[in-house]
Structure formats: structure tokens, C-alpha cells
Design goal:
Rossmann fold; about 40% helix; about 750 residues; alpha/beta; 6-stranded parallel beta sheet; 27 helices
Length: about 750
């Protein structure tokens, strides 16, 4: 006991020095910021630039040094140097060096910290000791040692503070780590996964396991696909990978940006604290529909229609929809000019449209070229009526902004009078007859208008979809036109079509030189896509066009696909992503969050849903079997409320969720209120409440201490993917699961 107390005291002293240094660094940065701000806003241009750089860097440094109530240091490794002497490194969430530059804490992402996560008895990576530290605020309250010996042996000891690791799995004595799985720091891991949920995902920086660390530290280039079943920590791994890449490739990625795409706003709120807790606050978080700025989905639609809109074929339909709006006139347009009339014939308009189609650039950017050609042709006609030479061919030059423009010089007539093409063009542009003809030939379009016109006009749709979609598919897409764009009931699947159209069309109005191209998608140096198994090919195209170099981390589980799209293998996803390098597929095989008792139930569902697939191996047991509650008569709501109240008491201060088919949510909300167990809607109030009620289709990626799954038969019927949605529902809890049903259970859950 004395040795343990001495070790704790020594660790406390070292960590205390690290905190003192952290406080000093923060104070020095604040003082530097104040001194610059006190100098005011004046000075030379160079002074202002230097001041702004100092302000930005100081604010970024303060964000990095602010770790809140998170532990600065959570571990230590001892290894032998080349001379056989022992050297120690303390591992933490950010690097802190003393005034003499001696490292007090090594950043967890540094190469020297790698053995803390990867060392095993078979491969100790030079370690003789790995120590996990338990902290409450700045106080070290416990430690757990693993000593690496010869022949692959690891001796574990867990002094007070972390709690002893229970015996073999299934002993019925409470939570237990499986003796079949080798884990690093079993006591620390068990303490972390058994802790009550708070409504926000916590980082796993102190308990990252070997297979997780290998993924986190994978090279930056190319597409990395992370397949992981429930509870394997795939989301946490992806976020820690983003933090690792920002540390390792700081210079390019800070400038290029990192994007994290989640399945819904609730999920983004759930994960929003992870990266800031790791010192990275500059990452962009968005849903896939949130990438389409200036517009949001306002309506739902049948799964079959959403699936059709998400097919890769729709990219060809949108491309042809744009091309069909580039069309010659059907009849001659007559444009009054002076005492006469100028005629723009179908043949001339066809020549102009063909020339414009051959030019590079977006549709709207080429409208100016169309206008120039039309005005030149009309000028030729006008000059012929005067008996003088035509304008003739034009030369092209750069306008300094990367675009080619036509030069047409004034033409001298035989009687030495001067023809001013600019004035001629300015007068014609004011004629509504010319504007109408140009809008017919090559209209300026917004993406929203294009998609609305496409689905609101069967003839336009038939032209764009000919040979791509059959008649029944075209009929599915048709919807009534609306008088105002603000009234159009765009859906989530429409967002990908609008994004595709924006790329083809470009801004409707040409921006001023140097102005931001508002509708061009921003690109990022690295993108993380979570729950990617539910993205359609059209949505994956959205991801691809935002990737600057093809560096993407794709995270998901094909078994947990619950939307209209459900790939059977990851190749169905990666074929729509950048292909500069072959995609790499890695798999997380161990479930740390989901207890074995729940994984066994989930495995039966998975066997029916996707024969041949297996759930991950659970690392722990809780000793508590899932409950199945059959309800007779009309008391479903009351039964759900009773189970939910029990769970709230059992897991306090943790979180409980009632997951139900969408059709039952309103009814259950009233029942819970009547029973004195009101539940919050996490989509409105967040996930921190003791009891939440939400439909299964927004539960992907979330976790709760206890879960009540309601009426599995209805859930399977209502979900586009049936049993896969049930698989998601039953794998959300970390400690307790109950299934309450009035109808017979699906065969996959039958006892």
C-alpha cells in the first residue's frame, strides 16, 4: 500500500508541474494578445497585417490550451533506451514542455506515444511499463499498470482508483472484461465504457485500442473505408483520425480545411465536443444536405422515390436537363432597331447554340458568349442593310480573370462614317424582344429553377430522361409546379440534384472580379463521412466534388443501413468516390460499448437480415440479460412507461431512450406524460435528458445507457430496410435493453 501511495504522489507531483506550465503558457498568450490589442487599430498597413496575424495565432493557441475539465495527462510509458536505461514519457491530450524545453507531457498523436496504444504482450514495442492514470480534475486518484515481460507476458495490476477488473466473462458478478480479447488498460477501458452517458460523445483518447490506433494513424492520401459494427468506436476513431491528421499534416490541412459529414443535426450535436476536447476547433461539421447552402429540405417523400432520385443515372438526367435548355429558336425573332427590324432566324440561333456548346465553362458563364455572337450576327445584318462590310470574325483575348472574351472593333463604312458596336449592342440589350429570344436560346438558370422545371414539366423531363429512365420512373418524378420557389417542397434527395445542377450551371449572375463564387462548392483537404452506408450515389458525388485531393475517411456499417439505399458491400460506395488511389478497407472487430448480452440478441437479427455477416465480438458482459415484455390488450404505452421509469432509476445519472416506429412516437409521448415519465425530443432539446423518445430512423450513431425498443414488428414494417433498422435499435444501449411489444415478435427475435 505504501508503494502505491508513493507512486500516486510521484505522479501527482509530475502532473502538477505540467498543469503549472499549462497555466503559464495560457497566461503568456493572453498577455501577448492584450498587448497587441492595446496598441489600437491605427498604424501602417504592415503593422496592421502583423497585428492581425498575432491576434489570430493567439486566439487559436488559447483554444488549443483550453482543455476544460478534461484530464491533461492520462498515461505514462517506460521503455529501455539504447544503453539499457529506462526513460519515461507521460502521454496526454496536448504536448506541454517545461521552460527548459524538457517534455512534461507528450501529445498523444506524437510518434513516441504510439506504443501506449499499440503495445501488446506479443509485441511490446520496447515498453517495460504502460500506466493508465485516473484523474478527477487535476488530482490523480488511481493508476493501472501493465508490465511487459519476456516471452510475451503482461502482468496487470489495478490499484484503488480505477477499480479492479472483474473475473471471467459471464460470472454473473457485474461488468466483466472478456478473457478472450487482449485489451490495453482493461481497468481504464471498463471504467470509461461503464460511465454514464451525458448526451455528448466523449473522446476516447485515453483508452484507444490497438486496432483503433492503426486506423487513426493511417496515411492521409486516398479513400480509407472503416467498417465497424455497433459499439466498435468507429465514429470516435474517425474523429480522432481527423485530429491526428491535423497534428501530423498541420500546414496543408489548416489552410485547406477538414470537413466532417454526419447523418443528421442531432448526431452533429452529439459529436460536436469531441474535436474541441482534442484541441481542434477549426473543423467544419455538416449534414450532407447542409452542404447545399441557401436552401433546405422541407418535405418527406416515399422511400422508392428517394431511392430513384439518388441513383447515379440522375446525374445524366440533370446534365441533359441543362443541355435541353440550350436550344435554337423555333421561329424567327424580330427585334426593332431604328426605323427597321432585325431578324434572328432559327438557322442563325442554331449556329450560335452549337458554338456555345463547344466552349468550356458553366452554362450561365457561357450566356455572355451567346449574347456576343447574337449581337455580332445582328450587327452584320444591320450593316448589310446599309450596304457596308460586316463585322467579320473576332479575335479572342483574356479579360484577366481567366475568361475569353470577343473583341469586335468598330467597322468603318465606305463613306467614312463609324459604326459603334458597343452602342449598337447597348441599345439592342434594352429591347425585350432580344431578351426573350436569348432566354429562349440560353436562359440564365438557378439550380432550384432547373430542378423545379424538370419535375414540373413532363415534356422537359421526357427529353432529359429519354433512354435513361423508363416511363414509370419518369411518372414518379413528376410533381405539380409552384408559383414561387419559396413554396417548392424540396426533399433531402432533391438537394443532391440541386448540388449537381449548381456545378453545371454556375452562378446565375456573373460575380464582380475577385468576388466570391457563391454557388461553387468549397473543397477540403480531408473529409470524414460518418454513417456513409446510407448515402446515395448522388450524395456521394457531392462528397467527391468537395474533396481537394481525394483524401476521405468513410465510416459506417453496411449492416446498419436504414435509408432507401442499403449497399451489400463497400465497393458499391467507393465506386462513386475519388479513384486516384485504390480505396483501402479496414474493419473494427471488437465492440467496446455494446455488452455481450445485447450482441447475442443483435446477432440473431443480423443472421436474418444479412446471412453471412457476423456482429463484432463484445469485449465485456454486464451480467444483465435483455428484457422482453409482452403486452395484452391496449396497455402498450403504460408498459413502455413502466419499463422506462425502472431504467431511469437503474442507470441514474445516465440516459434512457425509448426507440419506436415513427407512427407510434406521438402516442407514446402522450402515454409517457400520463404515466408521469415525460420524455424529451432530442431533436429539439438535445440528448442530455434522463429520458428521451425518438424514432428509430434518427438513432444511428447514438448511444444510451439503457434503451426500450417498442413494437419491433411495426418498426420492421415501416423502415425501408426492415430488420436492419431493428438491428440498429437494439444495439444502442451500453448497459440495459428492453423490448416491449403487443404484436408478435419478428422471427429474428423469437425465443
Amino acid at each position: 500500500m505504501g508503494d502505491q501511495a508513493a507512486e500516486l504522489a510521484a505522479e501527482q507531483a509530475h502532473v502538477g508541474r505540467a498543469y503549472e506550465r499549462l497555466d503559464q503558457l495560457r497566461s503568456d498568450t493572453e498577455e501577448r494578445l492584450r498587448s497587441v490589442l492595446d496598441q489600437g487599430l491605427g498604424g501602417t498597413h504592415q503593422f496592421r497585417e502583423e497585428r492581425d496575424v498575432i491576434v489570430r495565432s493567439s486566439l487559436a493557441r488559447l483554444d488549443q490550451l483550453d482543455i476544460g475539465d478534461q484530464a491533461l495527462c492520462f498515461g505514462r510509458i517506460d521503455r529501455l533506451d539504447e544503453d539499457g536505461a529506462t526513460e519515461s514519457f507521460h502521454i496526454g491530450r496536448l504536448g506541454v514542455s517545461g521552460a527548459d524545453l524538457e517534455p512534461l507531457v507528450v501529445d498523444w498523436r506524437a510518434p513516441v506515444a504510439e506504443p501506449f496504444y499499440r503495445a501488446t504482450g506479443r509485441d511490446p514495442m520496447g515498453l517495460v511499463l504502460r500506466r493508465h492514470l485516473a484523474a478527477q480534475g487535476r488530482k490523480i486518484v488511481g493508476l493501472e499498470d501493465e508490465r511487459f515481460g519476456p516471452g510475451g507476458s503482461v502482468d496487470g495490476a489495478v490499484p484503488a482508483g480505477l477499480g479492479a477488473v472483474p473475473g471471467p466473462a459471464g460470472n454473473g458478478q457485474g461488468p466483466a472484461i472478456s478473457d478472450e480479447i487482449e485489451v490495453g488498460g482493461p481497468g481504464a477501458l471498463l471504467s470509461a465504457v461503464e460511465g454514464a452517458r451525458t448526451g455528448h460523445m466523449r473522446d476516447i483518447v485515453a483508452t484507444i485500442q490497438r486496432e483503433q490506433d492503426e486506423i487513426i494513424r493511417s496515411p492521409l492520401p486516398g479513400v480509407l473505408v472503416v467498417q465497424g459494427g455497433p459499439g466498435t468506436g468507429k465514429t470516435a476513431v474517425a474523429l480522432h483520425r481527423a485530429a491526428y491528421l491535423l497534428y501530423t499534416h498541420r500546414f496543408p490541412l489548416e489552410r485547406q480545411g477538414v470537413l466532417v459529414i454526419g447523418p443528421n443535426p442531432l448526431f452533429l450535436r452529439y459529436i460536436e465536443q469531441v474535436l474541441p476536447s482534442l484541441g481542434e476547433s477549426g473543423v467544419t461539421l455538416s449534414t450532407i444536405t447542409g452542404l447545399v447552402h441557401g436552401i433546405a429540405p422541407r418535405a418527406e417523400e416515399p422511400a422508392a422515390l428517394a431511392r430513384l432520385k439518388g441513383e447515379a443515372r440522375m446525374a445524366q438526367v440533370v446534365t441533359r436537363a441543362v443541355r435541353t435548355r440550350q436550344r435554337p429558336l423555333r421561329r424567327t425573332a424580330e427585334i426593332p432597331y431604328g426605323p427597321g427590324v432585325l431578324r434572328l432566324t432559327p438557322d442563325i440561333s442554331a449556329t450560335v447554340v452549337a458554338a456555345a456548346r463547344r466552349r468550356p465553362g458553366t452554362h450561365n458563364a457561357r450566356r455572355r458568349f451567346v449574347e456576343q455572337l447574337v449581337l455580332r450576327r445582328l450587327a452584320d445584318e444591320h450593316l448589310r442593310t446599309l450596304g457596308v462590310h460586316g463585322v467579320g470574325p473576332s479575335a479572342e483575348r483574356s479579360n484577366g480573370h481567366g475568361r475569353a472574351v470577343a473583341d469586335v472593333a468598330p467597322v468603318s463604312t465606305d463613306d467614312e462614317s463609324s459604326f459603334d458596336l458597343a452602342e449598337f449592342s447597348a441599345q439592342l440589350r434594352r429591347r425585350p424582344e432580344l431578351t426573350e429570344a436569348l432566354d429562349r436560346m440560353w436562359p440564365r438558370l438557378s439550380a432550384e429553377e432547373l430542378v423545379h422545371d424538370l419535375f414540373g414539366s413532363p415534356p422537359l423531363l421526357a427529353l432529359a430522361a429519354k433512354g435513361v429512365l423508363d416511363r414509370d420512373e419518369q411518372a414518379m418524378l413528376v410533381r405539380p409546379r409552384r408559383s414561387s420557389l419559396a413554396d417548392i417542397p424540396f426533399t433531402a434527395a432533391d438537394m443532391a440534384l440541386i448540388d449537381e445542377a449548381r456545378v453545371l450551371l454556375g452562378p446565375r449572375r456573373m460575380p464582380r472580379p475577385g468576388a466570391q463564387q457563391g454557388e461553387e462548392p468549397r473543397t477540403y483537404g480531408h473529409i470524414v463521412v460518418d454513417e456513409a452506408q446510407d448515402l446515395s450515389p448522388m450524395q456521394l458525388r457531392m462528397v467527391s466534388r468537395r474533396s481537394l485531393s481525394g483524401s476521405i475517411t468513410v465510416v459506417g456499417d453496411v449492416a446498419q443501413a436504414t435509408g432507401p439505399w442499403a449497399p451489400g458491400r463497400w465497393e458499391e460506395v467507393t465506386r462513386h468516390l475519388p479513384s486516384q488511389r485504390p480505396a483501402r478497407l479496414v474493419e473494427l472487430t471488437v465492440s467496446y460499448r455494446t455488452p455481450a448480452e445485447v450482441v447475442e440478441i443483435a446477432g440473431r437479427i443480423l443472421h436474418k437480415a444479412l446471412p453471412g455477416m457476423s456482429p463484432p465480438t463484445a469485449v465485456r458482459r454486464t451480467g444483465v440479460m435483455p428484457r422482453f415484455v409482452a403486452v395484452d390488450g391496449g396497455g402498450l404505452g403504460a408498459a413502455v412507461a413502466a419499463v422506462a421509469r425502472d431504467f431511469v432509476d437503474e442507470v441514474a445519472p445516465g440516459t434512457v431512450a425509448v426507440l419506436a416506429p415513427g407512427s407510434l412516437v406521438a402516442e407514446l409521448s402522450l402515454a409517457l406524460d400520463r404515466a408521469g415519465a415525460p420524455a424529451t425530443d432530442p431533436r429539439l432539446e438535445g440528448l442530455g435528458a434522463p429520458l428521451s423518445l425518438l424514432p428509430v430512423d434518427v438513432a444511428n450513431g447514438l448511444e444510451f445507457d439503457a434503451v426500450v425498443v417498442v413494437e419491433p414488428a411495426a418498426l420492421v414494417e415501416e423502415s425501408p430496410q426492415g430488420l436492419r433498422a431493428l438491428y440498429v435499435a437494439v444495439t444502442r444501449p451500453t448497459r440495459r435493453l428492453a423490448v416491449v411489444h403487443q404484436r408478435p415478435l419478428p422471427d429474428a427475435l423469437g425465443s
